[in-house]
Amino acid sequence: MTTVRILAPKGELRRWHRKLFDALTRDGARVCFEWRTGPKQELSVFLLDELERQLLARRCENLLDRETRPDGLPQWTGPADLVIDLTGQPMPAAAAVFPVYCGVAGEDACNAMLLDGAPPRIGLAKKEGERIVIFSEAEIALEQPHILRSGREAVASRLITLIRALVRNGRAQTNASQAREAPRRALAASFLAKSLARRVASRVGRLVAHEGHWRIGWRRLSCAADATQACLAWPNKAQWTWLDDDRRRYYADPFLFEKDGVVHVFCEEYPYATGKAVISWFPLDERGAPAQPPRVILEADCHLSYPLLFQRDGEIWMMPESSGSHSLAIYRADPFPEKWTLHSVLVEGFDISDATIFESDERWWITAATREDDGSSWDCLSLFVAESPFGAWRRCGDGPVLIDATAARPAGNVFRRGDALWRPAQDCSAGYGSGLSLCRIEGVDERGLRQSVEKRLGPPPGINALGVHTLNAEGGFETIDICGWRRK
């Protein structure tokens, strides 16, 4: 049994510290606390936090809330196998593991990273003499980057994930390949010299005035090599057709399926009035235009999206996302394309998003975004394996195989380019669905998925959009979705 001693700020224990204790204890570790003096909070950060509470009416519990039961946590009584300094001091304790934010230790560094808009990269590090050596890193997702408190909560949840992996395995399961020395630089605190009022007004203004509005489009390919999947780039002068919408709903996550010479489009339809997405369908005519308006063909008690389709055993199957049910189900066309019958539940007990199935080395694999430790589903990729697409499915490892907001969450079908398998992934580093990463799969087995990002793509040239987060091609067409703004 691994013994872990956590150095925590006296009188400033937070809910995420308790959650970490509970998680490590469930994992089989013996955990105790030692109270240390924490850093003094900057007045500007305190005022911003209070302003967010008032303007945003955030009444739900937050991992940054004070822990009301600190007396129930065991205190340090002896030596430990691992010491973790979570006090937030810029000079952590000797011989302790501590968090770093863009390579810098301390709570101020965390706040500076979030407020300055730097890529949110966190890690675990130790001091070796005068050096700080980072041995585990992850680029995390910020679902609400304009809210400081939300960003700090996202950091806390991912620190739980990294620390659990460290305690379980002696190393963190992240995308860091080797330990490296942290850069020698001063604390990034430029936000203290800038106008806090202007920053807050900008952030709150974006929050209350707009929300994302997705649209789907497609283009006819001149040949197989014309697909973005083949050339890893958008063509300069592509002719895109965009699905009309009445601005009372959005359409996203388009998938194509060709049958009997007809190309069918399946997508998520999200009516703003109901706040619950369904799966809709429409066919393309010979000109590449919608042969009829989108029609709802599948709905459930929870949100449905990402309608991935494949053919097997002479049948057509759909595996839509239903993360609200904490499961992944598969449906059979009965008949195609307008009626679908539930066949079975493939995976249960996971908040699983954008599940993408593919075959490799005579086994079947599912890559999917999962919500780990109450954090974001944008930055954690889990891997599942089975001998058949119908199960039995088992998770590879006891945690995510990748934590990377730039290239984790799936963004469409796995495709073949030359002799290699490739996967489009969402690049959420600048917000949800801000871009795509085209990733070459270097290897996949029960130890995990290894990939290299070969190209990053924003929206196609000439299109006024803030993001793109799905890419598929089939039947001589390529389809994407783009994000814009819709006034509330």
Concise overview:
Helices cover 15% and strands 40% of the residues.
Describe the fold and architecture.
Residues 250-447 form the Glucosamine inositolphosphorylceramide transferase 1 N-terminal domain. InterPro entries: GINT1_N (IPR056442), Glyco_hydro_beta-prop_sf (IPR023296). The protein is α+β, with helices and mostly antiparallel strands and 488 residues long. It has 2 domains: 3-194; 211-487, Glycosyl hydrolase domain, family 43 (Tachylectin-2, Chain A, 5 Propeller). It is 15% helix and 40% strand. It is built from 6 helices and 29 strands. The chain has helices at residues 15-26, 43-56, 107-115, 148-169, 196-209, 228-231; strands at residues 3-9, 30-36, 82-85, 98-101, 104-105, 121-128, 131-139, 180-181, 210-220, 241-242, 249-259, 262-271, 278-283, 295-298, 305-312, 315-321, 327-333, 340-348, 352-360, 363-370, 380-386, 394-395, 402-403, 415-417, 420-427, 435-445, 448-457, 467-474, 477-487. A 5-stranded antiparallel β-sheet has the order 5-4-6-7-8. β6 (121-128) and β7 (131-139) form a beta hairpin. α3 packs across α4 (148-169). The longest helix has 22 residues, at 148-169. The protein is elongated and about 75 Å long. The termini are far apart. Mean pLDDT is 88; it is low at 172-177 and 185-201.
